[in-house]
Amino acid sequence: MGIKILIYFILINFMLTPHIFAFSKGKEEIVNYEKYGKFLNRGTPKYRYVIKNYRGLQRAVGPGIYPNFEGIKKEKEYIEAEIEGKLDGNYWDFVDRKRDDIINFFKWATVKTESAGVKLFYVGYALEKAGLIKQAIKAYYALLVHFPKTISYTYFNTPLYLGRIAMDRIKLLLRTHPEIDWKYTGGVFEIKNIYDNNIGNDKYIAIDPGKLEKGREVKPDVDLRKLKVVETRGGSYVNLKKYSNGHWVLFVNDRPFFIKGLAYSPNQIGKSPDFGTLNVSRDWQIIDVNNNGINDVFFESYVDKNRNNKRDEDEPVVGDAKLLKEMGVNVLRLYHHCYNKKLFRKLYREYGIHIILGDFLGAYTIGSGAPWHQGTDYRDPVQRERMKASVKEMVEEYKNEPYVIMWVLGNENNCGNANNANKYPEVYYEFVNEVAKMIKRIDPTRPVAICNGDFQFLDIFAKKCPDVDVFGVNSYRGYLGFGDTLWGDVKKLADRPVLITEYGCPAYAKDMSLEEAEIEQMKYHKGNWEDIWYNRGGGPGYGNCIGGVIFEWADEWWKAGNTTDPYYHDTTPQFGAPFIDGWSYEEWFGLCSQGDGSDSPFLRVLRKSYFYYKKVWPNLKYLNEGGER
């Protein structure tokens, strides 16, 4: 996982435990704003709503929602919370880090130093977490009506366009809560130049808050077999077909294939690349610490069912390969090259596991030869040739291996991870396209993907990378998934199939038991996967998703930074992130842990997220065209 999470960085805690809270929810469930004011200039940059009946609107929305924020102060629970000092403290600590979501709602409704738009967003968010979904939607919709141009900022000081996000959340909440018999239609939010983090050059094109009304909208699947293929990308062995309705499908050897992928790096506890004791890309492919000629992780791991950090008599050796097959994994993502053809041929033949094979393309200075403190310079012709040589070596070596289904360039390079892609994005994306063209000359049988950090510079990618077939994206947006602002923006600007090249959540949070955190991790994965599947080709969504890659299989204890002990499972938060308690814990993303590390790399403690996928993935039927291989 990368260091930064860019744009639409919503601090999402997803413990939707309903709170027993009796308070006035307003006179109208779905507020008829036409009764209380006037919509002006819908669908234009000059859109605004003018309130004509202020008191009537206050009664309609209820306490705690604009224009009735102050009304919440009359509620009995609010008065008690204030007397008991529960509302004391910095209001940003009332987003994710305090576990009483009604208290968070009280705090945000009465904050004095933030704009009404920002207050509305976090009021909606607190209500959502509290399980008061209709009230949450009411708050998000109020933001769209009154303050759609509201901007807030992430932990990394990148902009959050809260109007666009609120529109996303309304749609996602209605989709994931079918018990709510509402639909949302007509929402429009178009802004130019939002992908560079510079709000100074933003240009609003069209805004319309849309309409909430009774009557749930249900979208059916689409039978693509009845539609015409209008475009093909990729090559003769693996390709991507676009149908007349705009949906994309990945085909491997002429059969539809949906990627159920996994980032796999179960490296031995105690080793670290920061100390020169671990080659992250290579070690797990060749590891054999007991010197018996068998790969330790794929074929000699075991499940520690009672979590006592040793293998008991009823805990047989099974191997990760078998665990992955039972889970339904069909693809492993390799970030930088491959080192063991024999191993991957066995995984392909006996377990049905393919790989997507990548080159960092100068991320973390790998392949460019640049010093770390300077970082890769994509303007430097010498470094460019080194990176092209690295990619060429990989493709020529593995182009005839049937388990390789795609080439992936980079890993969040646009975030500036020891490189200057974020300073010179046009130079970087032009270079990516140059490399993609080179790959296709060497191997005309497979598609080429990029791995972007969320959708920063999507507009530049769309213009500069016509030869890149797949928009791969590492994205961590919260438990509901990725939303229209990912699937829809890619479709509109780039019209490429989308692969979520990383998604996931740590299984750790402060002030929460490990069991509780496992449950919350599982909820996050469930929401993300359901959004991926919903937007598959032939699905009811945008139809441009070809799969997802979970980050990651097993916890890695070196990842919190080179100042930490790789023998210690670090619980220090690294940065604010859209996870359980609002922080990222880089050493806790695994679907399984390695226990206390004493029997690494063999021991596996399978988390609840693993069993969620084991239940869902093997049973998926894709397009009913012969299924996957």
What does this structure look like?
The structure is a single chain. With 629 residues, the protein is an alpha/beta fold. It folds into two domains: 33-214, no CATH class; 260-266 and 326-619, TIM Barrel, CATH 3.20.20. Helix content is 28%, strand content 17%. An eight-stranded parallel beta barrel has the order 13-15-16-17-18-19-20-21, surrounded by four helices. It has a four-stranded antiparallel beta sheet with strand order 9-10-11-12, with no helix packed on it. It has a three-stranded mixed beta sheet with strand order 14-25-24. The longest helix has 21 residues, at 514-534.
Which regions contain 5 or more consecutive residues with pLDDT less than 50? 1-20, 625-629
* Main sheet summary: 8 strands, parallel, barrel
The CATH first-level class of the largest domain comes to: Alpha Beta
Compute the CA-based radius of gyration: 25 Å
**Proportion of residues in β-strands:** 15-25%
What is the CATH H-level superfamily of the largest domain?
Glycosidases
Structural class: alpha/beta
Average pLDDT score: 93
| Corresponding CATH architecture of the largest domain | Alpha-Beta Barrel
CATH topology of the largest domain: TIM Barrel
Number of helices: 16
- The 3D shape can be described as globular
How many domains make up the coordinates?
2
N- to C-terminal separation? 29 Å
Number of strands: 25
Strand sequence of the main sheet, in spatial order? 13-15-16-17-18-19-20-21
* Percentage of residues in helical conformation: 25-40%
